[in-house]
Amino acid sequence: YVGYYLRLSECVRRYVDRYLDGNSVRMIRLLKFLILFTLCVPAFGTTRYIAQSAGTFTGGSACNGQTAVTVATWNAITKVADDQNYICGTLTAAANTQGFLTLNGNGTAGHPILLTWDTGAVITAPYWNYFGVVNSSGNSYWTFDGGTNGVITASANGTGLANAVYNSGFLFFLGVSNIEIKNLTLSNLYIHLCSLPLSTCTDNGSGTPTQYAIWCQNCSNFTVDHNVIHDAFAGIVTQPVNSGIYSNTSIHDNEIYHCNWSISPENGAANATLSNVTIYNNKLHDWLNWGTSTGTNFHHDGVFAFTAGSGPATAITGLQVYNNQFCGVLDAASGFIYLEDDANTSRPISGSFVFNNLFYPTS
Questions:
Q1: CB 3.0 to 4.6 Å from 292: which of 31, 78, 100, 297, for a disulfide?
Q2: Strands 301-307 and 255-267
Q3: Beta-carbon neighbour count of residue 35 at 10 Å?
Q4: Beta-bridge mates of residue 220
């Protein structure tokens, strides 16, 4: 910004100097300087603090002593580039809440809107709706940062718990771009309990559950990194649902466990391509808690990429899976990496590279 205004100042000075001289020039220069730095100072983003109750917040680090607003107040605000927003303390939502946080605004290239969990900050509900904490449509240039220990969780959903809601989620995105999710712990969306023998595992579900911790549809330039995700049907799912080309998903340096599918790039949309998905440096382990007494009701996979559907020209291209660790027990119809393109040749998975991964089956 300083360089920009120095160049602007020089441009104005030369223009004025062409028409004025002497004292007039010096006076104009002084006025020009004052105008530039009082009226044209760049508008940096606003810092906000979000807490369960409005008023002075006590606790955490960045939030301590700051004036906080409620979630409802924050949701009504239009956010702009470089805004810094902090989650303060514990935010508790009602059971089956949908779209708890409203993004309502877009950043720009190099100037994202930041949503940061302060030290010890938690967002929780007994169980979440299908589109739980965030239900984002069309937003761009947002960064979700868990900081040192930020958490999103459900407190009572799963086998033998107060609730057994199969269709729920934490972070849902539709048609977004340039989104990053990092440093968060996403836990206990649905705690599915099973131990061998499988005949004792009676939580068999109804169809395919959609407890997805992170679910991104029609997304480009989407990054998920340095998170811990556990106890959900799927950790991270990215998929087209409309025709078009959706490019550049990067999933790296995450630890994902106790999920039936750890990471799933999938495509069932006609005339759609999911391209350039890179999955690397992740630690993916321990899926068998999703075992069922029916044996193959759920197949457990570290990386599960598939194409399906009835329409033509459905594809996944340029998939790369490398430098990951896979560890744990699998059962029938399962794989550490499971690539399943449709038998129809118009729905291929092509141009994939799988290399330098460590597979360690413990049984």
A1: 297
A2: parallel
A3: 11
A4: 177
Residue written as tokens 């956010």?
79
Contact 138, 176 (CB under 8 A): yes
Single-letter amino acid code for the residue at 351: G
Q: Which of 302, 264, 261, 265 is nearest to 282 (CA)?
A: 302
pLDDT tens digits for 32-69? 555 554 444 445 799 999 999 999 999 999 999 999 99
pTM for the whole thing? 0.88
171-205 in b/e form (b: 16+ CB < 10 A) is bbbbbbbbbbbbbbbbbbbbbbbbeeebeebebeb
Selection from 130, 196, 134 nearest residue 169 by Cα = 130
Q: CA 274 to CA 290: how far, in whole Å? A: 27
Does the pLDDT value for residue 5 go beyond 50?
Answer: no
**Mean per-residue pLDDT, 312-338:** 93
What are the φ and ψ backbone dihedral angles of 8, each rounded to 5 degrees?
A: -60, -45
